[in-house]
Write a structure and sequence with these properties.
heterodimer, A: 251 residues, alpha/beta, Rossmann fold, 6-stranded mixed beta sheet, 7 helices, B: 460 residues, alpha+beta, Dihydrodipicolinate Reductase, domain 2, Cytochrome-c3 Hydrogenase, chain B, 3-stranded antiparallel beta sheet, 18% strand
Chain lengths: 251, 460
Amino acid sequence: MSWIGYGLRGGILTTHYPYGDDRMPEAYRGEIEFVESGHRIEAGEGGVADICLSQAIAEESIVSKVDTLRCFRCGECTRVAPDRFVARNHFEIARVAGSPSSVLRALKERLHSLGRSVHLRHVDAGSDGSEEQELNAIFNPFYDANRLGVFLTASPRHADMLVVTGAVTRPMLEPLQRAFAAMPSPKVVIALGTTACSGGIFRGRPEIVGPVDAVLPVDVWIPGSPPSPLSILHGIWVALGRTLAHGEVGV
Amino acid sequence: MIAPSTLQATVQRRIDAGARLACIFADRVGADNILYYVIEENGNLQTLSGPVFDAVRSLAVRVPAAAWYEREISERWNVRFENLPPSRPLTIVAPAEQLRVVESSEVSTLLYGPIRSGIVESVRWVVETAGEDFISVYPSMWLKHRGLEARFVNVPIALAPYVAEHVSGASASSHAAAFCKTTEILLGIEAPERARAARAILVELERIHQHLDSLAKLAEDASLSVGSAQVFAAKERVHRLLCETTGNRFARGTICVGGTRFDVFECLREVCSRELDDLQERALSAIDRLISTQSFMDRLIGTGTISHADAAALGGVGPTARGSGVSCDARTGDGYLFTPLDFREALEGGCDAAARTLVRVAEIRRSFQLVRNALDADPRGSYRTSFGLSDGEAIARVESPQGELLYFVRIDSGAIARVAVRGASFANWPLFVPSLRGNIFTDFSFIEHSFGALQSEVDR
């Protein structure tokens, strides 16, 4: 049997997302939520610093907040204080900047000329190697981003979107800026992964220049360590103005 | 501790007697630099260490495997090695003109990367060529240096495995397991059997998805679209299984010092009983079909040859070295996580990209078997043991998908004072240089993907 016959025999694997629904397994830690009724954390002398390596939890007198761009979804807080922090299997977690509606309009306007297809250029600015594999996964038969008109391009000159993974290391600063400069306008930048969004556990370290938005104008943030392929598809859809970002109100 | 005057001579003598140099790293206690030489003798790791006050004698002239470690230490720790063979800087991102080695008007130097086509990690290749043939190819690394070894310092023990998972996210379970195993040896405890079985399953599943990734990329290089898509689909199934059991597609946040963070063995047993048969059948049928596709194997046979002697002398590990017939699987020595039943390492003698591919295919089969063995053993009892902190240092290893992964941990006054990581990909890059000799440009991506290296664990 030929490869084509073999491939056909496997049947259709592809998700209908974003046109239809899809979901992550129940156990998936897509986002950590603070539950207001819970008890305060008493985790040793260091308090929250003892349970949150990326200092994503701001513990205030009554409520706590989980900074979703800093959180790398280890789940430590949900195990230490299960009545206060709960993991949700959400995957539509991409964020956009500032006042959502104005950015959404600007993005839509900027992307209007692109028509239906969009070309991505990826730059690794200092990732842990898993974000690349998840970005690659959106082209596997389960997600097949090509069906949505999403393609990879070898050159930043043909790119509509720059997808940056990892907190920006000092040696990668110049190559990243040059790739951005080489792109034609409109230039959309997506920060992919917690370390790209906020620096994650490397925030403030001397080896790091900063998160991607310290260097380039980021339009969409997709947190996660690494973000799942569905989250990446959602983030691209948000950048294209075809769906709303997390917490965003329709225009 | 060995006196500075005799340390290198002692290491040299042990290596002459048949020991293998696994790693050299440095530490600093007070104002003194301490050098550690890690050697493997009869399947067990040993460290020889001593302070360095002045220059030390380089081992690299007689032990080529020492060269990259000595170069890294000389650049990062201000330790001077006498007679270290000259080479390009390893950890300093140097301008192009400093990276040249061959001075000839016939030879042109190309810098390839760090931004290349496709979705790849950042590494810059320095290619010297006289036309179609490669004369010399060197990775100029450290672009992704995030200071991970320094990041470990003073992190609470409970959270430190999360840092290990950041060293290489794609082989996070191996890194977390290696860190935890090392720390447990240091603290004089052992994780319960149930946790060790779960760790072994997670590391074997990780080996399966990373080997599938390498095979799918090779199929992609050979323009075998359907083959590549089918192997990537098999990889996706492994990630889905891991996500269902651990809540993360790379099983991050699961392994901790003293065991596992929750009863992941139970989750694995439940999900694997439903899904493992189908996953295994689909993965094996795709890769069997791949290696029996002649047009695919033709691109690999004779490509990127590394002689047995080079692979052994340069200190290669993992499938890269085993493809050249070098026996080096840590799972046959002290690198296993859960007592393996009748484990035999996969060896091939072809020395080329095809041999490395066949090693991966054989290892995927055996990994499925190891997963089943561990599931069948079904050890009862707790999944986590409690421990008190104590000072000391320890070294241990785990066979990661890329090969032997070494961790060194030193705890001082109840806090992590030094962690050294020797990723398998770091040990393998020196083999890349001889593997490209006599090959042409179009072979490059095949050779690169046949190494399956992860740059994040090299640059750290």
